[in-house]
Amino acid sequence: MTSMHTTYFDEDDILVIRLFDKSITREVLKNLNTHISYAE
Fold it and tell me: Which residues of 9-39 are buried (b: 16+ CB within 10 A; e: fewer)?
């Protein structure tokens, strides 16, 4: 089941976009401003 939601942290200027509510199995730092987490 897909459950997309976004969260914005104003004090740190961070936008989190979650596409699924699955456990994170791997995280990759693409560049200074982009961090990607992969689920199972």
Answer: eeeeeeeeeeeeeeeeeeeeeeeeeeeeeee
